[in-house]
Amino acid sequence: RMYLYGLVGVLLVLTAEARIGNSTDLDFCTETKECLLFDLICKTDKYEVRRYDTEKWVTTEETSLFMELASMRAFKRLFKYITGANEGGKKVEMTAPVLMEIQDVEKRFWEPSYYTMSFLLPTEHQKNPPEPTDSKVKIREIPGMTVYVQSYGGWMTSMSDKKEAKTLSLALDSVGAKYRKGFHYATGYNSPMTLFNRHNEVWYAVEDEPVCPSSLS
Fold first, then answer.
1. What is the residue range of the signal peptide feature (predicted)?
2. Which candidate, 44, 26, 5, places its Cα nearest to that of 120?
């Protein structure tokens, strides 16, 4: 039986406060002091529905034939920002997750894809973040959103991301869930130096009311 959780979602939106918080509030966010927190609306054996608040991020765009190359270039650019490539040369604490927007459009193999990578700004810099000195780096406010989420371990690669995104989209299609198509978010919670117990996620933005199969009556 299908249940819509719209009322719960509305109530969470109305009562939510700042949602950047202590990493100890999330079992899978273990490498930074602060993490992006969320309200869990519902959960199935295939995906979760989460509500995130509006927050400021530092972001950059990259084009490449390969996600791995785009990710490396974008990460390096953003890492320079948080280590002092900004007005005032301020050090900005690293947070999690790292968010990357990826296109889902079909293209010829020689056509590059567009990627947007973002680092969440910590609480200290949410109101007045230092301006980037690199013109390719921007401060961006990402509006609050409700997302369908599927988690997976191991390394995030172009192949693993495509596989997990496809699995999630098929699960959503099978229950008639409406979500924004044409792109998805790939999120990572670990340093590139972390070899084991990695945590990654695929997000699709919810359209209309979130759907979860449930045994609740």
1. 1-18
2. 26
Q: Please tell me the pTM assigned to this model.
A: 0.87
Cα Rg of the chain, angstroms: 17
**Cα–Cα distance measured from residue 72 to residue 141, given in angstroms and rounded to the nearest whole number:** 23
3-state secondary structure 64-131: ECCHHHHHHHHHHHHHHHHCCCECCCCCCCCCECEEEEEECCCCCCCCCEEEEEEEECCHHHCCCCCC
Q: What are phi and psi of 89, to 5 degrees?
A: 60, 35
Q: Which CATH superfamily is domain 2-213 in?
A: Regulatory factor, effector binding domain (3.20.80.10)
Per-residue pLDDT tens for 11-32?
444 334 448 999 989 999 999 9
Place of tokens 């459009």: 105
Q: Which whole-number Å values give the CA distances from 67 to 4, 74, 75, 103, 137, in the listed order?
A: 35, 10, 12, 11, 19
Provide the token pair at 195.
Answer: 């070899």
Domain residue extents for the chain: 2-213
Angle between helices 67-82 and 158-174 (to 10 degrees): 100
